[in-house]
Amino acid sequence: MIRISIDAMGGDHGPAVVIPALLAVATRRSDVRFVVFGREDVVRPELNKYPKLADIVEFHHCDVAVRMDDKPSQALRHGRRVSSMWRAIDAVKNGEADACISAGNTGALMAMSKFCLRTMATIDRPAIAAIWPTMRGESVVLDVGATIGADAHQLVDFAILGTGMARALFGMERPTVGLLNVGVEEVKGQEEVKDAGRLLREAGKMAMDYRGFVEGDDIGRGTVDVVVTEGFAGNIALKTAEGTARQIGEYLRAAMSRTLMAKIGYLFAKSAFTRLREKMDVRRANGGVFLGLNGIVVKSHGGTDAEGFAAAIELGYDMVRNRLLDRIEADLDLFHARRPLSSSRSTEFADDSNE
Amino acid sequence: MIRISIDAMGGDHGPAVVIPALLAVATRRSDVRFVVFGREDVVRPELNKYPKLADIVEFHHCDVAVRMDDKPSQALRHGRRVSSMWRAIDAVKNGEADACISAGNTGALMAMSKFCLRTMATIDRPAIAAIWPTMRGESVVLDVGATIGADAHQLVDFAILGTGMARALFGMERPTVGLLNVGVEEVKGQEEVKDAGRLLREAGKMAMDYRGFVEGDDIGRGTVDVVVTEGFAGNIALKTAEGTARQIGEYLRAAMSRTLMAKIGYLFAKSAFTRLREKMDVRRANGGVFLGLNGIVVKSHGGTDAEGFAAAIELGYDMVRNRLLDRIEADLDLFHARRPLSSSRSTEFADDSNE
Question: Which pathway, metabolic or otherwise, does it act in (chains A, B) (predicted)?
Fold first, then answer.
C-alpha cells in the first residue's frame, strides 16, 4: 500500500482539479491511498462527486490555505502547522504518508518542506528535479530552481541526488551523468562547474557513470540520463524549452490552418498530429521532485489540469515504490565513505561526527 | 558602398561555403564590396568559379588559418597579425572594411577582436548578441556566451548594447528590454540581476523601455525586444532552444512518416510544412554580433552552409547600414551623462579621465 498526502488547496484551480486527479490515479493503481488536506467547504463537495473515492481517501480539514503569491516567509508565518500545505508535508514526516503532492507555490512548498522534513545529513541544499522528454526517452534535470547558484560540492550532491532519482525512475543501475556547461572543452565555464567535474571524475566507483560536460542542446538530445546544473541556469533552460515547444506548436497550428490544402492534409494526418501533441504534452512530464530532503515531496505545475496533477501523483508514487530515498542514502554513504571528510565542507566538525 | 571583410578560412567547410555566400549576398545587395582573407591555394580556386565576384572582391593571401579547436591564447600566439581571422578584423580597425564576418572559432574570434579593436570607452566586457525568432517576430538576446557571469553594471551595459542593436535591426525608436530571471517577482533571483534592474529603473530617460524581469518562456513569446542575461545562462538558453526545436522537428518527421494516412496528409500539407521548416530554419537567424567593441564583428555558426553564412554577412551589412556603432555610442553617452561617474566602476579614475 502506498499512501500519498495531498494539499488540495494548491494550484490555480484547487480541489476542482486535485480531487478528480485522485480518481484518475486510483483507476490505474489499485494499491494507493490518499490523505487529503484542505478547507472542508470547498473540498468536501468535490469529494462527494466521486463516491468511489470514499474508501481510499481520508480527509482532514485545515483552516488555512497558502496563497499562490505568498512569499515563503509569509507562508511559514501564517501557514506553519495549520495550512493544508504544511499538514500534507507533515504527514510524510510523521509517517502517515509516503509522499506529499502539492500544486501550491514553489517557494512556500520548498521552505515548508525544508523546515518540516529537514535536509539529509550530508546535503547542504535540496534541489528540484524535472523529468525532461528527450529524443532517447527521458532525462532527469536538476536543479531547476530551488536555489540560485551552487558551489562544486553542492553540484556533486545534485549529481548524486539525480542519480538516485534516475535509478528509481528508469530502473537503470548506473545512469550517465553530465554537468551542464557552455562548452565541452575542459577550459571553459564556471570554476564551480570545473571543480565539480574534477570531484566527480576522482570520486571512484559510484552508482553513476560521469560523462563530463554537456551543453544546452544535449538535454533534448538525451546525451546523458542526468543533467546537473545550478538553479538559475536550470530554471531558465527548462522554461526556455517549454517556451520553444509552445512557439513551435503555434507555428504548426498556423501553418496547418493557412490553406485549404494544408487543412485537408491535417485531416489525413490527424492521428499523427495527435501523437505529436501527446509527445509534446507538458502535462505528461508534470512534477518537480524535491530531492535531498528526509521525505518525498512533488511539486505539480500550478496551472495544470486533473490529468497533469495525476501525473505528478504517479511520479510520487513511483518514487516511493522504487525506494528513492534508500537509493539516495546508499549513494551518499558510498560517496562519503570514499571521500575523506577533510575535503568536504564539514571539515571543522569531522572529529565530532558520528564516525 | 558597404565594405565587408571576410575570414575565408573559418568554419567547418572554409572557402567552399564562404565564397558562394558572397555571391548570394551580392545578388541581393548591389552596394556591397568584400575584402577576403585566406590561403591562396584554397580560396583562389573557389573565387575562380564565380567570375561575377571578380569586380567586388579584393583578395589577400594569409599563411596562417586559426583552427576550430585552437584555444584563444594559442590563436593569438600563432595568428596575431598573420592569420586570415586577425587580418579580417584588422581591416575593420584600419578602415578598409565596415564589418568583419568569420565562421571561425568563437573564443579565438572574440579574443582577437578584443585585442585588435578594443572595447568601447565605458564598456567593461563585450557581449555576443543573438537574434531569436519569437511568436511576435524577432528579439535580441545577449550575452549568449562571450563571458561567464556579469555584475550589475555589466548587465546594464548589455542592456544598452542590445538596445542599440534592436534599434539598428528592427528600426524601432525605443525597444522594450527585460532582464532574464527565474521569477517575475522582485524578491527572486541573483543579486546582480536585482541590482541591474534597480539601475535600469532609476536611469531616467533612455532609448530603451525597461520592462523588468522576464523568464525563459518569455524569450520565445517575444515579451520584450531585448533579453539581457549573463553569458552562462544565455548560452544555455540559446542551445536548449536549438535542441528543443531540433527535437520537435524529429518528432514531427517521425509522426508524418509513420502511417500511410499521415504520409498522404504530409503531401497535401507540403507547402505548409515547407513554411514551417523555413520558420524553424536556424540558418535564417545565423550570426552572433559582437557588441561593445570599436567595430562590428559577426560570428557565423561554424557548421552552416552558404545560405547561412550569407545571412551572417547580411546581418553585418544591416548593422553598418543602420549605424549600429553610432546608436550605441549615443546611448552610452546619454546613460553616462545622466549617471554621475562616482556611481560607476570608474570612480577612482574619474578625475584623470578625459572629461
Answer: Lipid metabolism; phospholipid metabolism
